[in-house]
Structures are given as structure tokens and as C-alpha cells.
Amino acid sequence: MSEQIPTRVLGTGDAALTVSTLGLGCMGMSEFYGTPDHAGGLATIHRALDLGVTFLDTADMDGPFINEKLVGEAIRGRRDEVQLATKFGNQRGDDGARLGVNGRPECVHSACDASLQRLGVDHIDLYYQHRVDFTVPIEETIGAMKELVEAGKVRFIGLSEASPETIRRAYAVHPITALQTEYSLFTRDLEDEILPVLRELGIGLVPYSPLGRGLLTGSITEEPPAGDSRATAYFPRFQGEALEANLKLVDAIRGLADAHGCTPGQLALAWVLAQGDDVVPIPGTRRVTYLEENVGALQVRLSAADLRALADAVPRGAVVGDRYGDLSTIDR
After folding, report:
1. What are phi and psi of 259, to 5 degrees?
2. What 3-state DSSP class applies to 249?
3. Locate the NADP-dependent oxidoreductase domain: which residues (predicted)?
């Protein structure tokens, strides 16, 4: 039986999906952040469900392909407890090679069928376009996703890393439940134009990497080891002088966290949660201890003064390095 934690609603009207206030990003259980850990992933998902963290996030590209199988295995017998989200469009080969972004309608349908099979379910609760395909009108992609809803394969649809214009055009075809994009104390650019559009249209926000890919937890003190994707130039914030500068910001957060009797990661996650009841972050981990720490952020209450102190400790523009070394696939 799962423990009770609060819920939030993504989307409005017929596009409203009730989910746990905190979700779980499952990607790192299978790839990118060090050695994959299948057993650890299963244990973490099971513990998440027991705690009431029932909003699970994966993608067909993660692994590639094996993360959906892991999630499917973990929720077997507990499907009714879960709000299941996955994504399509970032195509990869069986060898892991990146094959580009594909938003063609035929890809939408075939990718969904493949995800359903790997997950071992008959429907997906929230199906995202992982990246916008600049060669395909968004109306065509969303039109195909709408057909999945009509077929009962998908309940709600979402976008990831989409610009305000793309969001509006997509919404004109079919209601959008959520936008998934990076958002944290270290990444706040969406506040300028994207967040106002989401609020205008009644679309929820699902921040990924709400802990800055681990930087905001305070557990990272040096450059990641070889084999960890954060050690590559693709993540400039973890490199050399940029990392040194960013760790000084984390030290400032640590001081504020100590005053609250919580960890830096819990404080950073509480900040994201405080940005609105339509915001549902999905911190990723493959370890039960970190999952439990993240859930503890729900007990951290931030006053207006606390929020101002955090803004002063981490001013927008103070973070050194882009969030990705290559932003060419980000719709801006």
C-alpha cells in the first residue's frame, strides 16, 4: 500500500491529469549518469510507489529502449497506481547511435505501439513529443498524437522543450496537458516567455533536472568520472572553471539549507515546488536513499523571504555554462 502524499493537477478541463506532487525520472537507471543499475531501479520505483510517488517518467530513447522495459517490469501488478509518462521522437539505433528527431505522423504511431509493448501496458497516461521536429509542421505531429488519444492508446498529450509559438500552434490542434522542460534554480530562462504562455493556456509544467543534474544536491564536489555523460563537453556546467564557479553557488544554497535543517537538494527542490501548484518536478535517481531525500523536500516550507534569499544566493545569470553544449535541438 502506498503512503499518502499530495497531488497536483497538470492541464485543465478535459486535459486535466492528477499526478503525485513529485514525480520520478527513471532515465538514469538505464543510461547517462554512470553505470546502469537494473536492480536498483526496480527497488527505487517500488519504494516510490510505496511512498506515493506515482508519476513515473521515461522515454523510448533511454537505454536505448531498455528503460521502458524496466519501468514496465517495475509497475507490473500495480499499473492502476501509476500515472505513466513516456516520450517519442528522439530516434536512436539499437547500438545507441543518435538518428535525429522524427515527428512524422507514421513515426508517432509506430513509436507509440513500440512503447506500449515495451512497457507492457494498454495505454500511456501522458505521451510527450520529446523534441520538436523542425522539418514537420507541429500540427501534423499533434494531429497524429490526437489520433492516439481517440484510439485509447494515450490519455493525454504533452510537449518537451517547445517554444511559445510551437506550444500555441500545438494547443490549437488538441489540448496540451503538460510541457516538460528543464527548470531549476540553475535554469530559469523559461520564466520570461514560456511560463506565461503555459499559465495563459492552462498547461502544466513538468521540470526535468530540477536538481541541476545533481549539482544542486551538494554531492558533487569534482568533475564527474569518465563514463558519466556529465564529464563530457555536452554538459559545460560540470567542466573546469565553470564547475568551480557553480559549486560556490551551491555552497551559498547549503548555508540556507542548514538554517532550514534540510539538505541543499531538498531546498532546491522545495524552490521548484513553490513556483506554482501547476508545477510537478521529476527528479531522477536510481537509489532509494536519494528518492527518500527528495520526498523529504515536500516537508520544506519556504516563505517569501526564503524565496528572496534563494534568488539572491543564485541570481539569474550567475550560473556559468550553458545547460547543454549543443542547443541545436531545442525549440527556441
Report:
1. -65, -25
2. helix
3. 22-311
Separation between Cα atoms, residue 155 and residue 206, nearest integer Å: 17
* pLDDT of amino acid 95: 83
CA 217 to chain centre: 16
pLDDT at position 149, please? 98
For 152-200, the pLDDT digits (tens) are 999 999 999 999 999 999 999 999 999 999 999 999 999 999 999 999 9
Give the H/E segment covering residue 276. none
DSSP states of 2-27: PPP--EEEES-GGG-EEEESSEEE-G
Q: Which domains does the chain show, CATH number per domain?
A: 7-313 (3.20.20.100)
pLDDT greater than 90 at residue 128:
yes
Q: What cell numbers appear for 41 in the block?
A: 531501479
Note the pLDDT of residue 267.
97
**Average pLDDT estimate for 2-10:** 86
Write the burial class of residue 227 (CB in 10 Å: 0-12 exposed, 13-18 middle, 19+ buried). exposed
Span 58-72, pLDDT tens digits: 999 988 999 999 999
- Residue 91 carries which DSSP code? E
| Residue where the block lists cell 572553471 | 241
Q: What angle do CA 296, 299, 305 make, to 5 degrees?
A: 120
Sign of CA dihedral 187, 203, 74, 268: positive
d(CA 208, CA 193): 18
Q: What is the pLDDT of residue 30?
A: 87
Q: What is the pLDDT of residue 76?
A: 97
Q: Can you say whether the dihedral through the CA atoms of 320, 321, 322, 323 is positive or negative?
A: negative
Q: How far apart are CA 260 and CA 136, in angstroms?
A: 48
Total-model pTM: 0.95
- Predicted local confidence at residue 2, as pLDDT: 56
Strands 154-160 and 178-182: parallel
Task: Report the C-alpha gap between 264 and 256 in whole angstroms.
Answer: 8
CA 42 – CA 316 distance, rounded (Å)? 37
